[in-house]
Amino acid sequence: MDLVLIRHGESEWNKKNLFTGWTDVGLTEAGIAEAKSAGALLRAKGYDFDVCYTSYLKRAVRTLNLVLEELDREWLPVVKSWKLNERHYGALQGLNKAETARKYGEEQVKIWRRSFDVRPPELPEDDARNPRRREQYRGEDPAALPLCESLKDTIARVVPYFERTVRRDMEAGKRVLVAAHGNSIRALVYCFEKLSAREITEVNIPTGVPLVYSFDAAFRMTGKKFLGDPERIREKIRGVADQGSAPPGVPGG
Predict the structure, then answer these.
(1) pTM of the predicted structure, to 2 decimals
(2) Is 86 a catalytic residue?
């Protein structure tokens, strides 16, 4: 069994190096090109799918649509769930990562971005960005919607959803494509690879690059690979890791 995961293409706030979380921003022109390139690569490698999953956030939805257009599979069924949303960055959403590193120090920003169980500052209940006040989530249980999340919290919603839905489709013989986000994909990486809390803090997911996991009949991971040029992928991973660094010559603290 193969599972293909893809983080959305570069978003408008990725380009500006802002904490995005559940803020619903679109793709840049570069992000659109990344998504189309990923679809073309999957087609060239002979991948096909029976069902797709994505989040409620349009950067992932648009990425999936562009991939399916390249695959000539726009008719495939698509399941959307907020359980595949990005990690909720609370009150950090909209702040520039490098400027925040300059103000609070790179170590604090790395803790907020990459720690396992430390939550960022929470959104106030009356904040307009509260998902309980957003139309996207009008059909969801308000009590279940977070005002901020750690990676541990994100894992606690992503992995059970995967086990209940996506894994069942795979075990039924369906070929599955998931278009999601850096941290919702990291939640799955943590689960599939049985990583420690420390190990997952060093994992970075590049935008617009298909990531393929293979499993045996007992759903044990038997393989993992990114599709595409290895050096370009390493460069993109380094870029994700460096987002929380203060500008050169500017001390943290």
Answers:
(1) 0.92
(2) yes
